[in-house]
Amino acid sequence: MSAIVAVKARSRGGLLVVGYAVGTLTAMLAAVATAELWLLVILFLAAGLTLAFEDTLEGTIAGLTVPPEIRGTGYGVLATVNGIGDLLSSTLVGVVWSVAGAPVAFWGAAALCLVGTVALAIGHRGRGRHPDHRR
To answer: Which of 22, 61, 82, 134 matches a 20 to 30 Å C-alpha distance to 52?
Structure first.
């Protein structure tokens, strides 16, 4: 659904910033979450919304900004960078969780998410709208 919105939206990068911000809030919520059912439902809905934004929008933006003749390579680079990032972040959060506990691990993840969100927002604002090579 977010891919459809992204194709029609004027600011795809802005939507991705929103997705990253929701991810930051999700990590913050995980840091303070208790075993109360209503809070866990909100946490899992926020995590699902984050994935819906990030996974689909990153691919959509890559497909719309990378020239057609190298689009496959662009998707490959995106997948490789995401995979390495997933491995490193999961390892780091797991180590911190083991040493200092889950809340500290999730607060650390939230801090890194916030840095990424701010960097993306600054980069998006400074660069403006990405060209659409499909036109």
So the answer is: 134
